[in-house]
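Repro:
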Amino acid sequence: MRLFIAEKPSVGRVLSQVLPNSQSAKRHDGYIVQGDDVITWAFGHMLEQVEPGDYDEKYKFWRFDSLPILPTSWKLKVKSSSAKQFKVISGLIKKASTIVNAGDPDREGQLLVDEVLYYVGNTKPVQRILLNALDEKSIRSALNDLRDNKDFHNLYQSALARARADWLIGMNLSRA
């Protein structure tokens, strides 16, 4: 099974209309099955960085002497608003033989899907589809030009660095 993970439901729906077997598509709660393809979607960021107190009890209280807060390893958790869909996606990842990152073709789109794949410990092959437009011709062209998701690791790293910098500055300056 090839699993497409779109950034949002609207992209998943449009993608499913262009993939083979669209007439036999079967909608389920949180995904669409079309022959050997399955399309699912995120709702934006499904994971969030944990609060300082989740790293160490001493950070549960705002004290100037406990600054700066500098995690040695970063932790994420599933957003409560995304828990149901996250369970759907992680279950489909386990069943997939190949995964296609169908996040938006920018650093946040790369991060959205990659962070889910890393969080669940995915070791299956991942391809990247770059959907710059959602018309049929553009989607067909992108489907014929799937790339190795590893080629976009630097884009993921860029988004990750920005997110962590935002967290560090926000948590430390707010408390200071």
